[in-house]
């Protein structure tokens, strides 16, 4: 491990670790007559006192020359990014990308960059997104190259662009999302001129693919302070194109103060959910995108369901159901995977369920249904529900917390008694078919559902009791009357022998 020591531009920096392969690779390029510099995020992270998981380099060598230098040195390499001047490689435990100096511009109407190779390190740094990422270490000398004041901005906690923000965002509109992501991840603010350009050019984000926007949004939500990042998206108007449902919450501010500010409430729930993520048993380790995004989006159904009652009160009936549909629709547009979409939408749909838990508590069957409906999302639902309490009324907050403590204890007690995490009917599908003498099909599913309802309502039952109830249910089904006129075939008769 090589250690980089403080310099005049950063005198307080103590010894910082740098993998040996960095200097070793730099020497290989110099010996071959080329330049090589560590660049971007890895350099920024050195000044933040951490080692970046990625190692990105830039060079004056073209891709063919790069391959000639690294071919015998690396464990393996790949050329997937060759069109953009990038060669990837692996050396030991390190994954490395080496990119030829670039001068890059975007067609105003295209999502894809037009790539031209540059001639100098300084020009390459100028085309990067922000000054804190426009720093490099020349190798193998470890000379810091910081022509645009990246170290100064990093220590000031300010996001700036090397050139005019409008030019940078015109080249790659996704950089506007990245500015908000940095605000979340690094606890930094965005310079006034950067925020102004984001506001003026927000519409440009529409030319970026949904997948790239999704990836930046996910990183923002999973940052240290997602509230700040989301607020920046809303204030600059970017959210109107990326998360219009969240922007709509801000329009829900009621000038007559008949209900709380839904937008600020949602941001508070998001922050509180982050604080509740990691517990002793690691049930919801941080960062958890599903919990965080559900917290942000849990009330997006309110604008569509707001009603002013004759009494003067404001209601949002079934906003959780409407919200779940809106969340699923938005996430599909952003190309999230189906499992993530279903999980977030389900949490939004269930987030009000607890409020039926009165001072008298729930019946055992109601508790079972709560657990069954939440399924593998139960631990997240616990945290979302607790995060949703933002009232300033201390007594009300304490009463709700006590009620949820009671519900969680009831769940724990029933789980211990009944193994509720694996709730199943008292008879399985094979037993149902054998007992009723039926073949696989929709009727088996209905019978299974009936027995599951019995299990949730009454808890575990003996097989004899379950069989008796199933027979009684079957006697009322139209298929039973139809089947009673048909003789069983040999296979069916054999499968039911001894079980009738």
Automatic annotation (TrEMBL):
Region (Disordered): 478-500
Top-level division of the source organism's lineage: Bacteria
Swiss-Prot/TrEMBL keywords: Magnesium, Metal-binding, Nucleotide-binding, Nucleotidyltransferase, Transferase, tRNA processing
GO terms under biological process: tRNA processing
Alphabetical list of Pfam families matching this protein: HD, PolyA_pol, PolyA_pol_RNAbd
GO MF: metal ion binding; nucleotide binding; nucleotidyltransferase activity; tRNA binding
Family annotation (InterPro entries): Bact_CCA-adding_enz_type3_sf, HD/PDEase_dom, HD_domain, HDIG_dom, NT_sf, PolA_pol_head_dom, PolyA_RNA-bd, tRNA_adenylyltransferase
Cofactor: Mg(2+)
Domain HD/PDEase: 258-419
Gene3D superfamilies, A to Z: Beta Polymerase, domain 2, cca-adding enzyme, domain 2
NCBIfam families, per the entry: HDIG, tRNA_CCA_actino
PANTHER family on file: CCA TRNA NUCLEOTIDYLTRANSFERASE 1, MITOCHONDRIAL
The protein's name in its UniProt record: Poly(A) polymerase
Protein's organism: Crystallibacter crystallopoietes
């Amino acid at each position: 491990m090589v250690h980089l020591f403080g310099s005049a531009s950063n005198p307080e920096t103590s010894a910082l670790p740098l993998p040996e392969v960095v200097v070793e690779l730099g020497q290989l390029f110099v010996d071959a007559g080329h330049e090589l510099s560590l660049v971007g995020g890895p350099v920024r992270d050195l000044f933040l006192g951490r080692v970046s998981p990625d190692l990105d380099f830039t060079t004056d060598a073209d891709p063919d020359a790069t391959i000639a230098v690294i071919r015998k040195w690396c464990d393996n390499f790949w050329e997937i990014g060759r069109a953009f001047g990038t060669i990837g490689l692996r050396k030991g435990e390190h994954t490395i990308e080496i990119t030829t100096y670039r001068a890059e511009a975007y067609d105003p109407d295209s999502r894809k960059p037009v790539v031209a190779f540059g001639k100098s390190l300084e020009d390459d740094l100028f085309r990067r997104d922000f000054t804190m990422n426009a720093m490099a270490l020349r190798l193998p000398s470890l000379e810091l190259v910081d022509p645009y004041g990246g170290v100064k901005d990093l220590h000031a906690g300010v996001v700036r662009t090397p050139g005019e923000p409008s030019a940078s965002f015109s080249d790659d509109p996704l950089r506007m999302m990245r500015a908000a992501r940095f605000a979340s991840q690094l606890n930094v603010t965005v310079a006034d001129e950067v925020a102004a350009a984001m506001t003026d050019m927000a519409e440009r984000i529409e030319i970026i693919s949904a997948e790239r926007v999704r990836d930046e949004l996910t990183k923002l939500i999973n940052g240290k302070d997602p509230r700040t990042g989301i607020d920046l998206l809303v204030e600059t108007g970017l959210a109107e194109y990326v998360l219009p449902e969240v922007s709509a919450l801000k329009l829900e501010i009621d000038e007559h103060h008949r209900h709380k500010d839904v937008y600020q409430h949602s941001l508070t729930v998001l922050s509180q959910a982050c604080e509740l993520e990691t517990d002793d048993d690691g049930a919801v380790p941080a960062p958890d995108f599903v919990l965080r995004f559900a917290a942000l989006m849990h009330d997006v159904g309110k604008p569509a369901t707001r009603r002013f009652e004759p009494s003067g009160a404001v209601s949002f009936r079934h906003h959780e159901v409407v919200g779940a549909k809106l969340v699923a629709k938005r996430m599909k547009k952003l190309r999230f995977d189906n499992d993530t979409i279903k999980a977030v939408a389900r949490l939004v749909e269930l987030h009000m369920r607890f409020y039926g838990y009165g001072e008298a508590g729930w019946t055992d069957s109601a508790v079972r249904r709560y657990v069954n409906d939440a399924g593998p999302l139960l631990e997240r639902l616990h945290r979302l529900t607790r995060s949703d309490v933002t009232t300033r009324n201390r007594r009300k907050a304490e009463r709700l917390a006590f009620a949820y403590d009671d519900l969680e204890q009831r769940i724990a007690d029933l789980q211990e008694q009944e193994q509720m995490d694996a709730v199943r009917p008292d008879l399985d599908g094979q037993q149902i078919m054998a007992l009723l003498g039926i073949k696989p099909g929709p009727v088996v599913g209905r019978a299974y559902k009936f027995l599951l309802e019995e299990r949730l309502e009454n808890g575990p039952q003996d097989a004899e009791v379950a069989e008796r109830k199933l027979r009684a249910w079957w006697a009322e089904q139209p298929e039973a009357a139809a089947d009673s006129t048909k003789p069983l075939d040999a296979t069916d008769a054999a499968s039911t022998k001894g079980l009738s």
